[in-house]
Structure formats: structure tokens, C-alpha cells
């Protein structure tokens, strides 16, 4: 609810302190939420512990009721895989909590080389979440694969972005490597390399960026066409028409052989000239 990490003291500890980690405003919201739960429990003399309340999830797909015994279990996860679980503000961990009855998963602090991961929650939920995490880790150990995505060559430089900022952002977001072919190849294909579980999201993200760029390109073409038309209109509005009287006997000399004379005058002064029929 508050995008924070909440650490409770060990069961055999006499400490009554709960550690909340996150942004200041989020920590304050979590603190108020916990105090409100505590107040309600004291008021109603309910026997459930604060931890039971924090573990409860309305969206749980498992039958983990509040009366289930809360257990703590550990599993080993190679530190190189920790980033996957805690990336994007811990989205994977939030999904696990929603799916498995609010089970809380705690990873070692950033920079730590510990491979010990702690799970807390109802026993059935902890076991299910642990099994799912093992499956995820097995997927992460697979050999990366490469797919190609059709992207118009003229959009490649916009995909890359200024000094590569655009492509780096996508690679970080989707945890893949994106390879744009050299300009001299003028290829319409971009290669994405990564774990199979990441490729589909990366492909969708790349194609979505292509749609945005194409929409921007259409806007630019429309603006260019508008400006070109307006330029023609402005030029026409500046034109005037004037009649002059000339002796009809000199018309032929002005027109010249096959209109050569009159064309020369029009080219020189950028004007249109018409003489009445002889």
C-alpha cells in the first residue's frame, strides 16, 4: 500500500521496534497505517497479532486465512538474481504478496553478498511463494535468446536517442540488450537479446515506442505541409495584376519568335505577361 519495506523484530526478540524503509512520505504513511491497526486491535481486544494483519491480502488466490500460523522460512538465491526481484520498486515482490496471501519476502540489503532470503507468512502461502521463486530463479539461469523486431530504418536514430539515452533506458527497464544495426546497413531490424521471460515485454515496449515516434513523424509532416501551403498563399497574396497600353504594332516584336522575347522578360522579372491575340 505504501511502497515501503517493513522489518519486524525476530520472534525471540524483546524489541518492540519496527523498521520502515522508504521515502519519507511513504514511511510516514506506513507508520500511520500500522499505528491505526494497533489502535484498533487494542480497542477491540482482538487476539490477532499485528503481523497477521500485515500478512492479510484480499487478492490472495490461496486460502490463507488470518487464523493460519505465521511461519518464517529461508531460501538461497544467488545475489546476481536479487536485482530481478527488487527492480521497479519491488514489483515482483508485490505480485508475489498479492498472489500468495500477503507473504513478505525480505532480501539482503543492497551491496550485501548474502544469498539468504527470508519469507514470512502463513505456512501454506510461504511454501507456495518459495516454490514460485525457485521457478523464477531457474528461468533466470537459462541461456539468453535473441529475437528480431521490425523497426523502420529512419526511426533508429530516435530509438537510440541523444548519446544513447533512449536505448539505455529501454535496456534497463526491460533487462535486455538491444542492438541497433550500423547506419550503413540501412536495415529495418533491431535485435533484442535476453531471457525468454523478458523478451515479450521488451518487444512490446519497443513497438510502443515505434508507434509514438511514427505519430510524432506524422505531426511533423502535417506541420511541414501546412507551412508549405501557407508559403504559397502568402506569395499569391503578394502578387498584383497591372495592365499597360502598348501600340499593337510592337506586340510581335515584344513576343519574339515563338514567344522567345516575352519568355525572357518573364524569366528575368519573375512575372507572368500576356498579350492579346494578334
Please sum up the structure shown.
This protein is of the alpha+beta class.
Commentary on this structure:
The longest helix has 43 residues. The strands form 3 sheets. Strands 3-5-4 form a 3-stranded antiparallel sheet. Helix 6 packs antiparallel against helix 7. The chain is elongated, with a radius of gyration of 36 Å. It has 9 helices and 8 strands. It is of the alpha+beta class.
Q: Average pLDDT value?
A: 81
The radius of gyration over CA amounts to 36 Å
Please report the total strand number as a whole number: 8
What structural class do helix, strand and pairing data support? alpha+beta
Q: Determine the number of helices (DSSP H or I, runs of at least 4 residues).
A: 9
From the structure provided, what is the oligomeric state, counting identical versus distinct chains? single chain
Helix content: 40-55%
The best one-word shape is: elongated
Into which percentage range does the β-strand content fall? 5-15%
Largest sheet: 3 strands, antiparallel
Low-confidence stretches: 45-68
First and last CA, distance: 92 Å
Order of H and E elements:
EEHHEHEEHEHHEEHHH
- Strand adjacency order, main sheet: 3-5-4
Protein name: Vigilin
Organism: Xenoophorus captivus
Keywords: Repeat, RNA-binding
Pfam families: KH_1 (PF00013)
Task: Annotate the secondary structure layout.
Elements: E1 5-7, E2 19-21, H1 24-44, H2 50-55, E3 70-76, H3 82-99, E4 104-106, E5 116-122, H4 123-140, E6 145-150, H5 156-160, H6 165-174, E7 177-179, E8 189-194, H7 196-238, H8 251-255, H9 260-269
Antiparallel strand pairs: 1-2, 3-5, 4-5, 6-8, 7-8
Helix pairs in contact: 6-7
